[in-house]
Amino acid sequence: MELSSYRNIWRVAYPIIIGSVAQNLMNLADTAFLGQLGSEELAASGNAIIFYFLFIVVGIGFSIGAEIVVGRRNGEGNYPEIGRVVDHCFYILIPLSLILYLTYQVFGQSILEAVTANETIVGIGLQYLDFRVYGIFFAFMNLCFRTFYIGTTNTSILIWSTSIMAVVNIAFDYLLIFGNLGFPELGVKGAAIASVIAEVSALIYFSVYTLKNVDLQKYRLLAFGAIELKIWRNLFKVSLPIMLQHFIAIASWLFFFLIIEKMGTKELAISHIVRSIYMVLMIPLFGFSAATSTLVSNLIGQNQHEGVMAFTWKVSKLTLLATALILPMNLLFPEKMISFFTSDPEILQGSVSVIYVITASMFAFSLAFILFSAVSGTGNTQISLLIETSTLVIYVATAYSIVFVLDGSLPIVWCSEFVYFGLMGLFSFFYLRYGNWRNRVI
User: Fold this and answer.
1) Are 237 and 66 contacting, i.e. CB atoms less than 8 angstroms apart?
2) What is the pTM of this model?
3) Do residues 415 and 403 touch, judged by C-beta distance below 8 A?
4) What separation in angstroms does the CA of 350 have from each of 119, 124, 255, 388, 415?
């Protein structure tokens, strides 16, 4: 099968998309359940989840870099090296998860208090984070398995692993948040515990499936030999810029919501509802994005450099089509979608105009993010870091100016998304068209 064919793009992307559906069902359930507790609980847990992802995103960034390396080795047909790369992911991510856990224990409360003005939101957020932080260990080990399966383009397992996570998380949300069926009523703590249990269930599935179904000898996977400094250095060379890039992205997202918090609790609650809907709209995009970076890396590993731009346009077309198919839900039934999260008429009414803004921004996002993922797939992750950082600085400055200088309304603040995606797409296109990436060795 031709690596860059529409059929192969879909083969790699659709399991990630289906897995993202399950992941977002989990996020939607969290938001819906917590929304029933009250607007403060919803706002606080929303901020806490973003704060938690400031820690998790470091591992996600590393794993994406490792996927690019695995994809290059897969394209080269160097299968034994793939196992060694994945094993080194375990060597790096498990100690890193411990460091991040200890960092939260020492500094987490102080950081949250420093960036959040509302003491009630801080208190509720800490209730969530004090339990959720244990999920770092299991999440990072799951990322190691994802690195192998995405890098080798065997993504179908992600449908099952993420579906198991979603079912387990939703079930324990129902049991622990409200105390159903004899379980204790734990509120936001219950949501955090449910998420940790879900991460554990995914790790068990990954471990059992890999041991039973993967040719461990072919890939030398889970052999856990001696640490090789060459692999260590190469992984960090590719991954470190992506780790920084993702950390800066989530930090900017957190700053964006902290700016909105200054507008009021109602605006913050609206924005977290919109964020949950936004994540649903991004489902096809994330699947095609992961396919783009790993398949670009595979193409370069097969010395098919001239096919990268044509391949990127193919993925862009598929992404725009998939996005267009789900956008009518927002345009035709915005109130019904929002009512899933809240029954507060003021919040419901205030959310509609913001929904229209993010719906329009998705077209720019779909094109820009695929171009950006292709840049990452070339292996020149320093350039992707430069693109992300420069666009995010302008993005946050734009949002800040709209709120504090122009005194703009919430929908206008969300128009900052157009600035972000427009610049990201423009910079990425110029690098792919004119940049020196074809001789990049990783």
Assistant:
1) no
2) 0.76
3) no
4) 24, 24, 21, 30, 15
CA distance 403 to 252: 15
- The whole-angstrom separation of Cα 402 and Cα 396 is 10
CA distances from 161 to 17, 28, 82, 149, 306 (A): 13, 18, 21, 12, 35
pLDDT digits (tens, 9 = 90+) for 337-351: 777 766 778 888 888
In angstroms, rounded to a whole number, what is the distance separating the alpha carbons of residues 120 and 148?
A: 42
Dist. CA 268–CA 19, nearest whole Å: 28
59 token code pair: 């591992």
Q: Give the span between the Cα atoms of 34 and 217, in whole angstroms.
A: 46
CB-CB contact of 26 with 327 (8 Å): no
Q: What is the largest CA-CA distance in the chain?
A: 63
CA of residue 367 relative to chain centroid, distance: 17
Q: Classify the C-alpha dihedral 334-337-340-341 as positive or negative.
A: negative
Question: Cβ distance 194 to 176 under 8 Å?
Answer: yes
pLDDT digits 0-9 by tens, 223-242: 888 889 898 898 988 888 88
